[in-house]
Design goal:
Largest sheet: 2 strands, antiparallel
Shape: globular
Radius of gyration: 20 Å
Helix content: 40-55%
Order of helices and strands: HHEHHEHHHHHHH
Strand content: under 5%
Number of helices: 11
Number of strands: 2
Distance between the termini: 43 Å
Strand order of the largest sheet: 1-2
Length: 323
């Protein structure tokens, strides 16, 4: 009898959760489409006024940048690491509220509220925590094949480097060197940065990238085609070097989404991306290139992600594995 009651309760809980999730996502995506339409019909935010008044980064003035200290928590996401390095979220990268993260990501990068709810809530569910009341350390986000995935543009696979906190200098340099786009439409706020101090955890990365880009013209932009081409190189590299390589379609989209961030939020601007990816710092005077009135929506972001993903020619060149 106890077995039957337990079974029925579990089935009931699963049905209830599934119905709620379906209704919630319908609501969220409908809201997102509405915000997208408002963005189409309204003027963009003025250059210099993208970050809300009274919030960190207003007028391009960001809180003091302090690289992580030993014992601080960092992850494979440069955006979250940069927010911690500037003290927008806790500097040690620990005990962060999912709901608080949603609000601060939106203010920092001009992301729509729908997008800011969806991604942290997704991360909370991967970690089996509550979006409403749960907390996390940045390193928790690196649970393998949750959001973190193989064949990243700027990190080695977990199989090769368990600590996903620091970027890989060789990968960052290769990514930036593949840029073929014209000079940025909005003037870059960062120049070819001097090396950080030798005690910075980013020093070795910066040295490698500086040497690799010594003769490279930084006054250009990354394009969707550049990112497709770079992913087409990274995935075979990862498959070759990683004995536990796995990358399903969902995680391929995550990889393309990382590239979409570089185009939508940073405008593909190589000097700004250099500072962001090497030191995980927001350049002085920088503001999000996503200037939509209601913030960058999931619909607009995904459109760019899919353009990158379906431009990866290598995906159709390899044999089709049916068995």
């Amino acid at each position: 009898m106890v077995f039957i009651i337990t079974t029925l309760r579990r089935i009931g809980r699963e049905i209830t959760a599934s119905i709620f999730e379906f209704c919630f996502l319908v609501f969220l995506f409908s809201w997102d489409i509405s915000l997208t339409l408002i963005n189409v019909l309204t003027f963009k935010r003025k250059v210099g006024r993208v970050t809300p008044k009274g919030h960190p980064g207003e007028g391009g003035i960001w809180p003091e940048y302090i690289p992580p200290k030993p014992g601080d928590s960092r992850c494979g996401c440069p955006a979250l690491n940069a927010m911690a390095n500037h003290g927008i979220i806790s500097r040690d990268g620990r005990n962060i509220s999912f709901r608080d993260l949603s609000r601060k990501v939106g203010e920092t990068f001009n992301i729509s509220p729908t997008f800011c709810i969806y991604v942290p809530r997704y991360a909370a569910h991967i970690l089996n925590r509550s979006y409403n009341s749960g907390r996390f350390d940045l390193s928790d986000v690196d649970a393998h094949n949750g959001i973190e995935h193989d064949a990243s543009l700027v990190r080695r696979d977990t199989y090769l480097q368990n600590d996903q906190g620091p970027p890989d200098g060789q990968l960052v340099a290769s990514l930036l060197k593949c840029a073929t786009g014209p000079p940025p439409q909005i003037q870059a706020t960062a120049s070819y940065s001097p090396l950080p101090s030798s005690d910075s955890p980013y020093f070795d990365v910066a040295v490698h990238v500086a040497k690799a880009l010594a003769d490279f013209d930084m006054n250009r932009t990354l394009t969707a085609t550049d990112l497709s081409r770079r992913l087409g190189v990274r995935r075979p590299e990862s498959r070759r070097d990683n004995g536990q390589y796995s990358l399903d379609f969902r995680h391929k989209i995550f990889g393309s989404a990382n590239g979409s961030t570089m185009l939508t939020v940073f405008g593909g601007c190589v000097p700004d991306l250099y500072t962001f990816l090497v030191e995980e710092r927001l350049p002085d005077g920088w503001e999000s290139r996503a200037r939509d009135r209601m913030g960058l929506t999931m619909f607009s972001f995904t459109r760019v992600s899919l353009r990158i993903e379906f431009g990866v020619k290598e995906e159709v060149d390899q044999p089709l594995n049916l068995m």
